[in-house]
UniProtKB/TrEMBL annotation, chain A:
Keywords: Mitochondrion. It comes from Letharia lupina. Component of the mitochondrial ribosome (mitoribosome), a dedicated translation machinery responsible for the synthesis of mitochondrial genome-encoded proteins, including at least some of the essential transmembrane subunits of the mitochondrial respiratory chain. The mitoribosomes are attached to the mitochondrial inner membrane and translation products are cotranslationally integrated into the membrane. It is found in: Mitochondrion. It holds the Pfam family PBP. The keyword Mitochondrion applies. GO terms for cellular component: mitochondrion. Belongs to the phosphatidylethanolamine-binding protein family. Mitochondrion-specific ribosomal protein mL38 subfamily. Its main location: mitochondrion. The keyword Mitochondrion applies. This is Large ribosomal subunit protein mL38. It comes from the Eukaryota.
From TrEMBL, chain B:
Signal peptide: none annotated. It comes from Letharia lupina. One of its GO terms (cellular component) is mitochondrial large ribosomal subunit. InterPro entries: Ribosomal_bL27, Ribosomal_bL27_CS. Residues 37-58, 232-263 are annotated as: Disordered. It is found in: Mitochondrion. This is Large ribosomal subunit protein bL27m. GO terms for biological process: translation. Residues 236-263 have a biased composition (Basic residues).
Length: 326, 263
């Protein structure tokens, strides 16, 4: 028989898998047992919860170990045919994402100071890819203002099971503020209560329903002439915490004065509610020859401005006593 | 010459047979000891050169403006921190107007000493890691004329899906504007120009479309008629021969004229 060794190896793997399956069944039984034991016997509610969480984590680990050596699963994953409802494919996809794409994203986040400027801390656990029309955008890429005139299409892959609701926010943190001699922020898009699951990954922003989801419709990114480039960050924020899956009150959001476009801050939005940023993507925009047309069509006022460098100040000159030099 | 050594093993003899004084006459009369250390030159170091005026040029919480030198040094005793930079000779200078601050930042580097500039007197460095950066715009706005493009509706360049208006979060996007053509040209060109964004942000037709321009303009090339090919070949050769002869005669004439002028 050809590939004799391979067939033998498969038998070994199959045996290992059957052992793992037995272990899984055993673990499930144990979890069911400990769930029924009163908390007082286990040293309190907190201790019981910890024990159950640990057991559950081990069970998830076993599920992956049972399948991770299967050559058919490896092949299916590499062909892109993996079913993201199964833990093994989610595990493999997560591992692949963390190998390169997440590292690149983290580098961009630190290079472009997304973390101290927009959020105090960020640990992406979902893969976000972004594009306009047919053009895909790499994290941190400069995007022509004419390209980003139409709303982006997002692809968000989460690697943990279950449906959830997410908010999507596009923020510009580099709006020049001449009065304060500093930078302000602006919200270019805000949608809430968008359903997301490991299998349902595509979120085209222009297809979101206006009444149900959209707080602020898409405002094309633009930069003033002569101003430094604008960083536009796309945040995917999971609505969980104390009330997982609970939807946000969209009417209140629309009406509240805190949620105006100008001066909208992602920090404030995330702090006040049990929201957790799970994924992000970013691109940059600077003034180009198409910007004037884009802002005119979008109806943005006050863009007939050009920034130039301030004349560098000199140190206050201390006038010395004239008599000394006479 | 090496001085004679009484203690050298070759010369050690029993003391009773050979007392010390017997050997003394063999020693040289004038003995000079060579120097073990050079009295001149490199070994004694050149005299100290002029001082290089290194050190702090500005003290802590002193006002500086962009370009002011804060510290001169050999090597990096100090590193540039917030709103500061390092010059070619490791000089630390200010990049913003503010007040000088000397500090350590163990989270960035456990051992380095930094010099920074803060915008307001009394502000402290290092800034906590999760705090947004303090940034200064440092620009002045000036009114300008909007570009001519602002008034024109440019064609859709982003996506290739359909020409119908797209409802976009409350914003309506127009379909592509194509060159308005009269009925005659439209009849001539069955397919309209399909402009789009190409690699390298080129706004033009695709190569596929450019290749079929003639077809769209209904340019027709006459059919190839195969008549007497042998006769044609003979004619062609005759023409070529005539041409070469003409050229040869022309060059001969030129040469002749040159020779004449020389004579």
């Amino acid at each position: 028989m050809p590939y004799q060794c391979f067939q033998e190896a498969r038998a070994v793997l199959a045996e290992d898998r059957s052992r793992k399956l037995l272990e899984i069944a055993e673990m499930r039984k144990r979890i069911a047992f400990w769930q029924n034991v009163p908390a007082s016997d286990l040293g309190g509610e907190y201790a019981k919860k910890g024990k159950l969480v640990r057991m559950q984590r081990y069970l998830e680990q076993l599920k992956i170990l049972a399948d991770v050596n299967d050559p058919v699963i490896k092949k299916r994953f590499e062909d892109g045919m993996g079913d993201m409802d199964r833990p093994i494919y989610r595990y493999l996809a997560d591992r692949k994402w963390r190998e390169y794409k997440r590292k690149l994203l983290m580098q961009r986040i630190s290079q472009m100071h997304i973390v101290p400027d927009m959020l105090p801390h960020l640990d992406p656990i979902a893969e976000v890819s972004l594009g306009f029309g047919r053009r895909n955008v790499q994290p941190g890429e400069f995007v022509d203002s004419r390209v980003s005139e139409i709303p982006a299409r997002l692809n968000v892959r989460v690697f943990d099971k279950g449906e959830r609701l997410v908010s999507i926010a596009v923020v510009d943190q580099d709006v020049p503020d001449e009065e304060r001699d500093s930078f302000g922020s602006r919200c270019h898009f805000l949608a809430v209560n968008v359903p997301l699951s490991p299998t349902n990954t595509s979120i085209p922003l222009f297809k979101l329903k206006k009444e149900e989801h959209i707080v602020h419709p898409w405002l094309p990114p633009y930069a003033e002439k002569g101003a430094p480039y604008h960083r536009l960050a796309v945040f995917v924020i999971q609505q969980d915490g104390a009330w997982k899956g609970a939807s946000l009150d969209i009417k209140a959001l629309r009406e509240s004065s805190r949620n105006k476009r100008d001066g909208w801050k992602i920090r404030r939005f995330v702090d006040k509610k049990p929201l957790k940023p799970i994924g992000m993507h970013l691109f940059r925009s600077k003034w180009d020859e198409g910007t004037d047309g884009v802002v005119t069509r979008a109806g943005v006022k006050g863009m007939n401005i050009e920034f130039t460098r301030k004349k560098p100040e000199k140190l206050p000159y201390k006038k010395k006593d004239g008599a000394r030099y006479r | 010459m090496r001085p004679l050594c009484l203690r050298s093993p070759r010369l050690t003899l029993p003391s009773h047979t050979c007392p010390l004084f017997q050997w003394l006459p063999l020693l040289p009369l004038y003995h000079s000891r060579p120097a073990s250390h050079a009295s001149q030159g490199r070994a004694n170091k050149a005299a100290q050169g002029p001082g290089k005026r290194l050190g702090a040029k500005k003290g802590a919480s002193e006002l500086v403006v962009p370009g002011n030198i804060i510290f001169r040094q050999r090597g990096t005793h100090w590193f540039p921190g917030e709103n500061c930079d390092m010059g070619r000779d490791h000089t630390i200078f200010a990049k913003e107007k503010g007040y000088v601050c000397f500090y350590k930042d163990p989270e960035t580097h456990p051992k380095r000493k930094y010099i920074g500039v803060v915008f307001e007197r009394g502000m402290k460095l290092p800034v906590p890691r999760n705090k947004p950066r303090n940034r200064r715009l440092g620009l002045v706005g000036r009114e300008r004329e909007m570009g001519t493009l602002a008034t024109i509706t440019p064609p859709r360049v982003t996506s290739g899906e359909g020409n119908e208006a797209l409802e976009v979060g409350g914003m309506t996007e127009q379909g592509g504007t194509l060159r308005q053509q009269d009925k005659r040209t439209r009849a001539k060109m069955p397919e309209l120009k399909q402009m789009g964004i190409r690699p390298g942000y080129q706004y033009r037709e695709s190569n596929r479309h450019i290749g079929r321009v003639a077809e769209r303009a209904q340019v027709k090339v006459g059919e190839f008629k195969k008549r007497g090919r042998f006769q044609a070949w003979r004619k062609l050769n005759a023409r070529r021969a005539k041409r070469t002869e003409k050229r040869a005669s022309r060059s001969r004439k030129k040469k002749g004229s040159k020779n004449k002028s020389k004579n």
